Amino acid sequence: MCVLVLAAAWAWGATPPVFAGDLDVLGDERGGLLHRYLMAELDSRFEQQRAEREQALRSPAALRAYQAKLKASFAAAIGGLPAKTPLNPLVTGRIDRGVYVIERVAFESRPHHHVTANFYLPKRDGPVPGVLVPCGHTQNGKASPAYQQLCMLLAQHGIAALIVDPICQGERLQVVDSGRELLPLSATTGHSLLDNGLMMLGLDAAVWELWDNVRAVDYLVIRKEVDPARIGLTGNSGGGTQSLYLMAMEPRIGPAAPSCFLCSQQSILHSPIGEQDGCQQLSGDTAGGLEHVSFAVMRAPRPTRLLAAEHDFFPIHATRESFGYLERVYQVLDEPERVDLFVAADEHGFSKPRREAAVQWMKRWLLGDDAPVVEPESEVLPDEELYVTATGQAVSHFADEQTVTDVLLGSAERLAPQRQDLWRAPRLADQQQKLTKLLGLRPVGSVSLVERGEVDHDGRRITKVLIERPHEPPVPGLLFLPSDLEAGARRPGVVYVHGDGKQADAAPAGAIDALADRGRVVLAIDVRGVGETVDLAHQNKRRYGGSSNYSAGMLSLHLGRPLLGQRVEDVLAAVEALRGVEQVDRGPIDLVGIGVGGPVALHAALLSDRVGRVSTRDAIDSFARDVVARADQYDLIDHVVPGALHWYDLPDIRRALGERYSPEAP
C-alpha cells in the first residue's frame, strides 16, 4: 500500500520551496543513517540474547537445552562441512633443538590444498599430549616470535605443539591476480577479499579456517607420538577466534585457552574496532542467537581458561562480563573449577604472562601437573628456517596446489545441476521463495512518498522525495516528470537505481532527462548505502576489502539480511511509491539498474509482478565469474548473498525474466 503525500507534505496549500541546483534530500539527517539503523537492529537482538541466556541458568536441564539450541545455530551458521579426504601428510625437514625437535610438515585439508605447519615434538618416551595452536593475524604466521616461544614452552614441558599457517598468512598466501601471481596483501585484507566469494558458496573465511583446524586435529591424533585422548587448544587474537569456534564444535579438544579475543560481539561493534575482517565473524551469527560467550557455553563443562589483556583493544569489561556468565554456567553444571580467567596488565598479544598461563592450564588438564610455569629465554628462528616449502609459498611449491578461489570455483561448477533444477520453468513461485529467504527479505508493507521540495535544475523542475516505511531508513529520491506532460495525463513509470547515487545521471540532458523526454516519469533513488545514505567515513572500515560499504555490509550479514536484499526492499518500496503518483499510469513499473544497482534491479524484477522491463548497465554479470573468481577485486560486499550459488546465479535471473530483461534502458 502506498500513501501519497506529495502535495500534503507542504501544509495549507503552500507552494513547495524551490532550490537551485541542490539535489540532496536528507540534509542534516543523512549522516550515519544506515549505520544507526543497523546498530539499533543488532542491539535489539543482543538484548533478546541476554534475556535468553539468563533463562538458561534456571536449571541443569534448561542449560542443556540451551546448549543444544546454540549448537544447532552454530551448525546452521557453518552451513555444512566437507567430507574428510586423505591428509597425505609429509615432513620436509627436522630441526633439533635439544629437548625437542621441530618438524616442517604439511597436509591437505582438502584435495590439493595444503596446510603448512610446524610440529614441536618433545624427546620423551611414550605418547605425549598434543596442543593445536592457531595463529593470529601475523603476516609470517607460524614463524611469529611470540608463537614460536609458546610452542617452545609447550615442548619444553613435555607437550607436543602443532602450529598451522592460516590462509593468507605465512606460506599460505591465496589471493592471485588475473595472471596467477600472488598479491602481497595483509592477512586481514586477504581474508576479507576471499570472504566475499566464500560467502557466495555458504561459507566464510572463519569456516574455511575452522575446517583447516579440524584437519589439523586429525593430523595430531594420527601421530604415533601423540596421545589422541589428550588434545588441547590455545590461540591468540585471530587465533583466539579460531580457538573459540573449534573448541565449541570439536569433541576431541579437552582444555582450551583462547587468548585476547573473547569479549562480546556487541561490545566490539560499539568500540572503535567496529566490524572486523572476514575471519572474525560468521554470517548470520547474531540472527542465530550467537555471541562470543555462546561458543564457550556450548563446550561446558570441558576445561576453559580465558586469557585477556587489561589494556587490549578488545573491551576487557565485556571479557569480564562474559566470564561472569560462564562462572554461573559451570556452577549450574557443578564444575566450577573447570573455568578460569587470567588477565595480565599489558596490551594485546600472546605476551609472556599469557603464554605461561596457557601452558600451565594445559599441564593441569593434560598432565595432572598444576605447578607454575616460568618461561626461560629461548632463541627464535628466522622465518626461512621454519619454511615447509622450498619457495616459501604452497601455491608455487606444490605443482597441483589449489587456492581457495580454485576450490570455490570447482564447487560452483559442481552445483550447476542443482541450480539448473530450480530454474526449470515453470517454477517462478519456488524461485521467488528461495530468493526471498536467501536475501532475508521482509514484507515491504505500507509506503509513503513525502515531498521535500523542488529544485530548478537548468530549467527542469525536479521534485525531491522521501520514500518512508515503518521501522526502515528512508529512501531519498528525485522525481522527474516529462516536460510535455499535460494536466490529468498519465505516463509510464521508471525507477532508476544508480550505484553512484540518484544524482549520478541527473545532469541536464543526461540519461534521466532522456527518459523523461521520451515520456517517462522517472524516480531516481539512493538505495541504502548509496549516495546520501552511505556511511560516514569514520564508521566504515575501508582497510578490510577497501569497500565503501564494508561496515554496512558486515553489520547486515550479522543480521542475516545481506545489503543486496535490503536494497531490493528499497526498490520494491520505490515501485509501490511511484505507482501512487498521480501522473503515473497503472501499468508495470520499469527498472534501470546501473553499477551495484544492476543486480538489485534484477532481483526486484523477478520478485515483483508490478515490475515490467528491467535493464542494467556497467554491472557485474555473474556471482561466480565476478565475485568468486575475482578475489583480487575490491567493493564486492555489495553483491554478497550467502549461499546464493547453491541455488542461482545472475544469468539464471536474466533467463527467467526473458523478454522483460534488456541491456538497453526502456
What would you say this structure looks like, in words?
Residues 104-268 form the Acetyl xylan esterase domain. Keywords: Signal. InterPro entries: AB_hydrolase_fold (IPR029058), AXE1_dom (IPR008391), FrsA_esterase (IPR050261). Residues 1-20 form the signal peptide. The protein has 2 domains: 78-413, Rossmann fold (3-Layer(aba) Sandwich); 421-662, 3-Layer(aba) Sandwich (Rossmann fold), CATH 3.40.50. It is 35% helix and 19% strand. The chain has helices at 33-56, 60-78, 145-156, 187-200, 205-222, 238-249, 265-269, 292-299, 316-332, 352-366, 394-397, 404-414, 416-422, 428-439, 511-517, 550-558, 563-579, 597-607, 623-628, 650-657; strands at residues 2-5, 18-20, 90-96, 100-110, 113-122, 128-134, 160-164, 226-236, 256-259, 304-309, 339-344, 447-457, 460-468, 475-480, 493-498, 521-525, 589-594, 611-617, 661-662. Strands 1, 2, 12, 13, 14, 15, 16, 17, 18 and 19 form a 10-stranded mixed beta sheet that branches. Strands 3-4-5-7-6-8-9-10-11 form a 9-stranded mixed beta sheet, with helices on both faces. It starts with a strand and ends with a strand. Residues 3-20 have low confidence and may be disordered.
